[in-house]
Amino acid sequence: MSAPLIVVMGVSGCGKSTVGLALADRLRVPFRDADDLHPASNVAKMSRGIPLTDEDRAPWLVAVGQELAAHGAAGMVIACSALKVAYRDVLRQHAPAVLFVHLEASKQVIAKRMVVRSEHSMPLALLDSQLATLEPLGPDESGCSVDASRSIGTIIAVAEQEVRAHAELQRH
Predict the structure, then answer these.
(1) Rounded to an integer, what distance in angstroms lies between the CA atom of residue 69 and that of residue 92?
(2) Using CA atoms, how far apart are residues 134 and 137, in angstroms rounded to an integer?
(3) From the CB of residue 127, how many other CB atoms can be counted at a distance below 10 Å?
(4) What pLDDT does 109 receive?
(5) What local confidence, expressed as pLDDT, does residue 67 receive?
(6) pLDDT band at 123 (very low <50, low <70, confident <90, very high)
(7) Which site among 16, 31, 59, 110 is 20 to 30 Å from 65 CA-CA?
(8) What does the pLDDT read at residue 113?
(9) What global pTM score does this model have?
(10) How many Cβ atoms from other residues are within 10 Å of residue 49's Cβ?
């Protein structure tokens, strides 16, 4: 399998970083959390419970796309919310071969996870805004959806299986 470019996407609390890190390890490619690419002003805004605007996200999405493009030959997994088709379009402009793995779960499952985690800039108060913004993958988008309400081991195994199946299809 050639080195893939993968965005593990979904709302805050769905498990993007955990799944992305494990998936990168299994695929032997680097991992990056797109949250680390946010400008300080975005982090401060989210920490105060203020939803980001598309204008806030624009430079961040370019930075994420550039990070993917920089790893094109070596492959990479990056955890990035990528909630709207327009956001994913920005990423595809920089890395056309990117594959999206959408982690989906109910509001209740995600809220429970967000309550127990620490050291994160996204408060539970912003979950509704993220769910309202989310546009699921369209049929013309390269990627898959994975049920994120399952055990972490199952989520990772299914995500890896989907990525490998996609890579196999691309070879033929």
Answers:
(1) 9
(2) 9
(3) 17
(4) 77
(5) 96
(6) low
(7) 110
(8) 67
(9) 0.89
(10) 12
Residue for token pair 């390269």:
142
Rounded-to-integer distance, Cα 65 and Cα 98, Å: 10
Lowest mean pLDDT among 86-90, 107-111, 135-139: 107-111
Q: Which of 89-98, 122-131, 162-171 has the highest mean pLDDT?
A: 89-98
Residues 103, 13: Cα–Cα separation, whole Å? 10
Q: What whole-number distance in Å separates Cα of residue 138 and Cα of residue 169? A: 18
Six-digit token pair at 48?
């105060």
Tokens of 84: 């709207």
Q: Where are the alpha helices (H) located in the chain, listed in sequence order?
A: 16-27, 40-47, 54-70, 85-94, 107-116, 127-133, 152-171
Burial of 164 from C-beta contacts in 10 A (0-12 / 13-18 / 19+):
middle
Residue environment code for 106-126, b if the CB has 16+ CB neighbours within 10 A, otherwise e: eeebbeebbeeeeeeebeeeb
- End-to-end alpha-carbon separation of the chain, Å? 12
Residue type, 117: R
In terms of residues, how long is the chain? 172
- Is the pLDDT at 50 greater than 60, yes or no? yes
Q: What is the CA radius of gyration of the chain?
A: 15
